[in-house]
Amino acid sequence: MNDASQQIIKLGSRDELYLQNAGTRWMGIFAGIGIVALAAAFGVGASLHDHLRQFYFSYLTAWIFCFAIAASALFFVIGHHLFKSSWSSVVRRLAEGLAGNFVPLLVLFLPIIPGMRQLYPWMSRMYMNSSPDLHNKIGFLNPQFFALRMALYAAALIGISLYMRSASLRQDQDGKVKRLLNLQWHSAWCYLTIFWVINLVGADLVMTLQPTWISYIEPAFFFAATGMMVYAVLPLLAMALQAGGRLKDIITAEHYEDMGRWLYAWAMFWTYLGFAQYMLIWYANKPDETMNYLIRDMGPWVIITIVLFLGHFIIPLFGMLPRQCKRVKPLLAFWCIWLLFFGYLDFFERIQPQVWSATAAGRKAMAGVHKFNPYALPHSLAGLAWMPLHPAALLTSLLCLVGLVSLLLAHTFYLLQKGALLPIRDPKLPESIAFENF
Amino acid sequence: MTTIATSSSSAGSEHAGLFGVLAEFDGPQSLVDAAANIRTAGYRRWDCYTPFPIHGLDKVMAIPRSILPMVVAGAAASGAIGALALAWFCNAYDYPMIFSGKPYWGLPAHTAVAFPALVLSGVVTSFMCVFVFCALPRFHHPLFEMPQFRRVTDDGFFLAIEATDPCFSPVNTAELLRSLGAVSVELVKD
Amino acid sequence: MTLAVNEVSVPVDFDNTGEDIIHPPVLMTGEASYKRVTTLVSRIIEAPKAPAIWYPCFFLSAGLAGLLFALIGYEVFTGVGVWGNNSPQGWGFPIINFVFWVGIAHAGTLISAILLLFRQKWRTGINRFAEATTVFAVVCAGIFPGIHVGRPWFAYWLAPYPNIMGDWPNFYSPLLWDALAVGTYTTVSVLFWYLGMIPDLATLRDRATTRFRHTVFGILSMGWRGSARHWKIYDRALLVIAGLATCLVMGVSSTVSTDFAVSQIPGWHETIFPPLFTVGAIFSGFATILFLAYPVRAIFGLKSLITDRHLDNVAKITLFMASIVFYIYLIEFFTAYYSGSTMERYVYLNWMFGPYWWAAWAMLVFNGVIPQVLWFKKARKTWWIAAPVGLFCLAGMWCERFVIIISSITHDFLPSSWHHFVPTWVDYGMLAGSFGLFFTLFLLFCRFVPVVAMYEVKSILPQSHVHLPKAAGEKK
């Protein structure tokens, strides 16, 4: 323990290692913004007179975005222990803070429940009986089993994130290396569990929005979209803290470069899985599969699809390549915000085109998959595709996003101010601070 | 292959017939320390020779970053574009043909052609660049004539200062190296 | 803070698999000096005779390789009817073997490239012979599509060259993509392997006692003299190639998977096939290393360089990949159920309970269940458990390819076209022969090429870690 205790002196003053009052202040500010924004979103959503349909879709999109940030942070923390990384020790506590958000996320899921019938066609037994293929999967797509699965996911996410954070905080107190060894030991099964849970959340909350569509890769593709988020949020959080005088000499360009590299790698991994899905469906051209892309080819959506492809893949592919883009703070901040935006756009593109199919007419058209042809739809029906892109609908989505992200940040700051901003007695910390890239 | 004692006075100002001076050090740390001093002393044409890449030695010697990644990026991009163009020429221009109801030239499918071409041209270029930038293969080198230099691929750590360096002097340079803790210092014939 | 010690000398049988957060792991047992690394590896090549067991192994393998070439001759002169291939199963064993060997070929690139990118120092002990398995597995893989085309002397038709008929190859065809991808992979893996070997070949040149050896290794090592300026370029190039090769690993397996996945056959058309083939390839590659590393280090006395910790890590990655493979199997079954489609569901029922049920169960048990024993440290540390597990994984992966290729297409949409596939003795002979070819090349490699990357092992020894004189002031 001699090594570890000696290092505490070098780490800097208490002001640099703890949020102290600033934490409470930011918590209050974000909580305020969050509540106001959500109330406004509800107001705008209600003014659309669509039985809150758009509001629910906007809220679900924003919720999935926040879930992705928390889940990827949890995956990052477990991965840090599993692979015995050393560079990431300096940002581990921040990631633990982001990963500690599952209880508020569970609470924030409650408003979705009254909207389930709007969001998920399979909630209606009549709809499920409308085609043999749909009828065949009633055993999986029914409200009771769905609730049970959600309870299991919540238990796993909350339990594992609590364990990861509390063991780490306790290690701050007593400095026992054994706690880290335990974390490493448990990380293996936790990693697999969380991997599965993220995949299944994607299948349950996103893929079942269109119950007639299947793609074997969709859960993994959702996982790829999710996993990227932490690498976009962590650098921004670290930069904000450093601007506020915290962790100044601790998180260096070397750490930013590594986070930037991972961000780049995940953006490319997303492309790999997304391209695999698109290319195979495009090539085989089966009606039940192409439906997914045909809806995203209707009206304005084709533009969003192309913009997403360019913004999530082509532009970062070349733009992030120079080393300085990952080392110079303003440049990295730009790319983090850029990819956060396109990460959100990706979830938007997965969820919101279904708004039209949540209408009665849309459902009828979607049930007959083998006859489904968006180009032959009556104009009134195809026009529904525009719905989520009307200014008021976009405003609802934006307000929901601001609201939920603010609440997430408020709770993150609440967690961060409870302890030091880095695992001060982690024996790997000196190695992590001195870390240099090759 | 003469020792300093016998040759110090005979070498002229041109240092004709002299490649430089070769010093051996007993380990990575002493080599790195010596290299830092040699750099401070203002030498330009000198090099370290080690059995493995020493992490950080490049910084001490102030070796500039290689332009290799840029060259490779260019080659890789042209490989990919070339493959896409080839697919377009073959299947869409010179002999247009419809395959499985697809457009003549379809990016989703032709990515599968462009990608290997990208990697192939990138890797072959990196491989070639190593030899071009290092000026290899070079089977004869004055250092190979030194018997102790055979250990450079085993456990020998060497530092050689070339006679073409403006600061070079057979006596002073050797003396400097000796003062930096070299195990042996010898002049190398060209 | 540094914890590196200058002189490390731990017993050869030191158990370095334990977890110690504070101290860096011991990656070489025994006296950890540069000289000893050089001697341990070079003496294998410099010895006048190979270890006694090498000879029977070599002659057995070479015999099987001879069988392979004899059967190829038989097939070429007689026609593809010598195989069990028939309508609708036109692919049969040759393509199973092709996919199988391509999969194994991914370990070397992975260990060298991905572990290099992830800064995993322990890769230095095993990367060289992992890369060798890559090159030899690609050789085995390349043979099968070559002879499967039926008239191999027309294989050049795949190339886009101006010809008298004025036509061009079909760039929409996954078979053309295959040829491109595997050709690229062969080139890249050979170049990567050779480039990584140059400093070690220079070591052999400098140690050479005869003029012949000196000339041969002198030419092969390209006049390498260990210059720091060269090392800088060399390191950069290896890193760039590693990055490209990592992408290529995914690209090649994904391309192979499109042979099936672009079709509309249930059981072939699955959007998860590209990652499944990639993960499966990595998995079988690591299983090969797990299986081969024990005999290699025992026969050639490399236990202090390929330590228990290396094999422990290989076993852990094998387990990790097995878990992802198993995840994909379960997602396949789930999605087939979830599709609600009779066709999709039938395929999986037919896998499990149809005529080829044994292959599907073997695939699930060998790849999904048996590797789970590697969760236990005792199993990872015991050679007679870990090495057979590697072998089971290989058998399981071969069965996976059998299931995918044979089961799906012999029972497609139209029952009247269903046909049972029966392999012939030539099929089995060629499968055995391909193993013979692989091991022949591998044994030659062990005897005549440095099995362990000496310069890389030296670079991770504790005494190779230096303090930078200038940076000392900047860093706190």
Q: What can you see in these coordinates?
A:
The complex is a heterotrimer of chains A (438), B (190) and C (476). In chain A, 73% of the residues lie in helices and 0% in strands. With 438 residues, chain A is an all-alpha fold. Chain A has one domain. The longest helix of chain A has 32 residues, at 143-174. Chain A starts with a helix and ends in a 5-residue tail after the last helix. Chain B is of the alpha+beta class and 190 residues long. Chain B is built from six helices and four strands, in the order H-E-H-E-H-H-H-E-H-E. In chain B, helix 4 (68-94) packs antiparallel against helix 5. Mean pLDDT of chain B is 86; it is low at 1-12. Chain C has one domain (34-460). Helices cover 66% and strands 1% of the residues of chain C. Chain C has 17 helices and two strands. A two-stranded antiparallel sheet of chain C has the order 1-2. Chain C starts with 8 loop residues before the first strand and ends with a helix. At the B-C interface, helix 2, strand 2, helix 3, helix 4 and helix 5 of B face helix 1, helix 6, helix 8 and helix 16 of C.
Helices and strands, with pairings:
The complex is a heterotrimer of chains A (438), B (190) and C (476).
Chain A: H1 2-10, H2 14-17, H3 21-47, H4 53-82, H5 89-99, H6 102-109, H7 116-119, H8 125-128, H9 132-135, H10 143-174, H11 177-206, H12 218-227, H13 229-243, H14 253-284, H15 287-295, H16 301-319, H17 324-327, H18 329-351, H19 360-367, H20 379-382, H21 391-416, H22 429-433
Chain B: H1 4-7, E1 18-25, H2 28-40, E2 46-49, H3 57-61, H4 68-94, H5 107-134, E3 157-162, H6 170-179, E4 184-189
Antiparallel strand pairs in B: 1-3, 1-4, 2-3
Helix pairs in contact in B: 4-5
Chain C: E1 9-10, E2 30-31, H1 34-46, H2 54-78, H3 92-104, H4 106-117, H5 127-148, H6 174-207, H7 211-220, H8 228-261, H9 273-299, H10 308-339, H11 342-353, H12 357-369, H13 377-381, H14 383-410, H15 425-448, H16 454-459, H17 471-474
Antiparallel strand pairs in C: 1-2
